[in-house]
Amino acid sequence: MSASTPQPVRGMQSLLGEEAERMAAVVAAFDRVRRLFGFKRVEVPVLEPTAVFARSLGETTDVVSKEMYSFEDKGGDSVTLRPEFTAGIARAFLSEGWQQYAPLKVATHGPAFRYERPQKGRFRQFHQLDAEIIGAAEPQADVETIALGAQLLSELGIEGVILKLNTLGDPETRAAWRDALYEHFAAHRNDLSEDSRERLERNPLRILDSKAHADWPIADSAPVIDDFLTSEASDFFAAVTAGLDSAGVAWERAPRLVRGLDYYRHTAFEFITDQLGSQGTVLAGGRYDGLIESLGGPHTPAVGWAAGIERLAMMIGAPEADTSRAVVIPLGGAAEAVAGKVLAELRRAGVAADMAYRGNMKKRLQRANAAGARFAVILGEDEIAAGEAQVKDLASGEQRAVAFAALAEAVRA
Ligand code: ATP
Ligand code: MG
Q1: Which ligand ends up closest to the CA of 306?
Q2: In the chain, what percentage of residues exceed pLDDT 90?
Q3: What CATH number does domain 18-170+230-314 carry, 3.40.50.2300, 3.40.47.10, 3.30.930.10, 3.40.50.620?
Q4: Counting CB atoms within 10 angstroms of each CB, which of 6, 218, 329, 409 has the fewest?
Q5: Is 390 in the pocket of ligand 1 (CB under 6 A)?
């Protein structure tokens, strides 16, 4: 390697084999489960006008103030690589006329970008699953969204994940709680971390979500939202928890759970695990009734979640490795010419097949074994003349002659 060999952008992964298969397995399970729940597939751009995220996520959130990949394009417009899906889906809901389909249940997945310090389970290009119900104010929508997440985790065979649930109340509740939190944290101003002293003026709720140990005891003694819930907010939360109970989704109350983005109202939740160190949140979301208005749209209640595919991929069992059912081994020039045809016919018949064309017979059989193949299809001059191949069962060592026309059947069995 010369010194000038290009390196990847920091925090952006290139994956081969099992690690890539794990991510594909997570996506496949998501695609299966979202269909069971009637969530339609959507595609939205990787790039949006910067305002889409700045206005909806909240200018003071970490994501907007520090983590966005924003740049000017050649036309001088400020654009941003999506740090998450919700804002772009909300933008599409407004600009693409999707309002006519409300309540709209949609799901998507793909890369997202955040400029943060890379570590285990934290990357600058990562991948999310995303599910949203837009245009539904009913607590049933919250229940359904959360149940989708729970079933996904269970179908992925991920155990030991706990659903932490909270309500952030309606705007009235939130404003009263916010004032009480401000008073509480202001009284402890000098003991707070530097970040949290800053958060105090802009958004004291965020201190509850602090990753700085210094803030934890102060956050633990902070007023809880329950003392400020309006009866509407309290009824709404009761309906969500009753719905979860009836759907058989286990949950735990987490009265200090807040989410990192500004747009949440009422329900907030996180599925967390202790298996991934400090990157313990695998799936998180909530109700965001204010988001679409912040983009200039009509009041549109909505609820949704996102999950980190890399974090889920680390927690599932290893997917079955790709194997070839048969490996074709041509011996000699004439055989090589026929091997291409045999291989193509096997594949067209739906048999996963490969060819070993390098080295001596022993090497080629080793290759076939390494590929996990059950059969070696050996083509020699004599066999070709007879329109046959030798089919060797690599498990039992048995070998027999099979006519070309019967090959696919022989190796499928
Ligand atoms: P965290 O507290 O870990 O930073 P977050 O609150 O910023 O998470 P969300 O914005 O809720 O995360 O994103 C939803 C999910 O996406 C997270 O629960 C996590 O699984 C995943 N995720 C978020 N940021 C990253 C990242 N930089 N690398 C990998 N996965 C991520
Ligand atoms: Mg984050």
Answers
A1: 1
A2: 78
A3: 3.30.930.10
A4: 6
A5: no
